[in-house]
Amino acid sequence: MAVDAKLVKELREQTGAAVLDSKRALEESDGDIEKAKEWLAEKGLATARKKAGRVAREGVIENYTHTGGRVGVMVEVNCETDFVAATDQFKDFAHDVALHIAFANPQYVDVSDIPEAVLEEEKEALFEEAKESGKPDNIIEKIVEGRLEKLYAEIVLLRQPFVKDEDMTVGELLTKTVSEIKENVQIRRFARFELGETVEDAPEDED
Question: What is the DSSP string of 8-56?
Answer without folding.
Answer: HHHHHHHH---HHHHHHHHHHTTT-HHHHHHHHHHHHHHHHHHHTTS--
